[in-house]
Amino acid sequence: MSAPATALETRDAIAAGRVSAVDACRDALARMHAVNGALNAFNLIDDERALASAERVDRQRAAGQALGPLAGVPVAVKDNMCVRGQRTTASSKTLDRFFPPYDATVVQKLETAGAVIVGKTNCDEFAFGSSNENSAYGPVHNPWDLDRTPGGSSGGAAAAVAAGCVPLSLGSDTGGSIRQPASFCGVVGVKPTYGRVSRYGLIAFASSLDQIGPFSRTVADSALALSVLAGADPADSTASTQPVPDYLAALTGDVRGVRIGVPRAFVSEGVDAPIRTAYDGMLDTLREAGATLVNIELPHAKFAIPAYYLVCTAEASSNLARYDAVKYGYRSPAAKDGSLRTMYLKSRAEGFGAEVKRRIMLGTYVLSAGYYDAFYLKAQQVRTLLRQDYERAFQSVDVIAMPTSPIPPFRLGEKTDDPLQMYLADIFTVSANLTGIPGISVTAGFDGGLPLGVQLLGRLFDEPTILRVADAYQRATSWHTRVPPAPARG
Amino acid sequence: MSLTLADVERIAALAHLELNAEEKELFGRQLAGILDYAQQLQAVDTTGVPATSHVNTQRSERADTLKPSLAIEEALANAPDRALEAGLFRVPRVIG
Q1: What is the dihedral of CA A305, A309, A310, A313, to 10 degrees?
Q2: Between A102, A309, A317, which is nearest B38 by CB?
Q3: CA 20 to 30 Å from B20, out of A63, A67, A179, A412?
Q4: Nearest chain B Cα to A337, which residue?
């Protein structure tokens, strides 16, 4: 399979009349149906709705109307974002029959831009996970090796782009859930600055950490997507009113004088050798392109994981209290014969998977009387120290580079017995969520046919710089042009 | 640290989760392991360090003006049980 068309190429071809939006849509749908048996990347493939959207774009073009920046581009959306009238499950039994009465803001923005939403991607249940093995609909398989995980929690969205189904997909990132699957699937993934993209319509996991962002094969496509998604929103009080820069214009290809922070101590331990090689290789490439490497220290970075898992589970336990079987969601058949409390106890127990229950339990504990100060409050203080580490670092550098994951894509089932082992693999991603800074993962090498990603982190609202550096890196390398082997039909 | 069965049951009750015996044992063990790991935060000197509950400091306010909201049928559409005519969600008896 040759490298599939990018979002920009697809958009331009449709605008020029070289291909119709309906044909581009049919191609995407055909590919999705062909590979979903093997990958299980999609919870829902909505042919009818997608073709109707594509037809609308073709009619607009025929009528000579102006087309939006994503007109006719097939896009997949993680199944934790509400699409009005379209089944949205968060990969949980609890929401198996949930049809949102409203569109998430990002969905509205995609549609206004002319994008064609083709389906909802599989993910870890309620976005809790780093391997997409916690889904009520079965795991997603990594297109590069079907026995391995695609990463999580946005595993399906990453796999859909990697497998050439769609050039763009949306995921969400609370502790690395876009960047890590991007790394595991050999694609670009961006977690914007906290507040850059509206969370309205995103099924909440941890409200001070969650952000929606794009997956794509090229940095330019992610820049295009971000320019559509970013901006203020009256429906989300945490969505920033900071003006949105022209992200595509930022891709000048010039990194001369950019100072790249290298947190040597932090990345020296526990990182697999091939990943160190990819990381060092990326630093060399950027230095040769004119960037300067600067050693920095992040003294509290090693405490990011425990801080993260106390903060995010506390927030999750609060956010998931809404699943009470009253207004929506799964209600246990046993509820008929009992009290209101029985309805809550049984519906939640039957609707939630093990990892969801585990995190709710942990979060409830750390917020409970007697433990709040020692755990939750302490974690929030460490969060402040971490923010200060990064602020200090950004006084002498413009971007910070580190591996995305300390380990390459692991086998399905390898880490499911020990939740803590799974959590430890998030060591390089959680800081960006705790501090709010933006991060992008790009492929920087392969090991035994498995992609390895490296992250670039930037100052708050400085997506332009991390996009510019990542794009320059792609111009100097060709990792992103590799495609996975064709998966077997399921 | 360790969590007793009573601890696990107390947390489950707060979280409105009914757990079976196996889950109580499993989660008790796993949670204790995770909390043990989280204890390393105690070594960090946080004297005088304010907590960050949110990185977002912007104030967002709008005038308190009425706007259309969800129609009642739409609001009730996903309810497991409802009294459509009355515009109500239906739940097991709460009082009595």
Answers
A1: 170
A2: A309
A3: A412
A4: B92
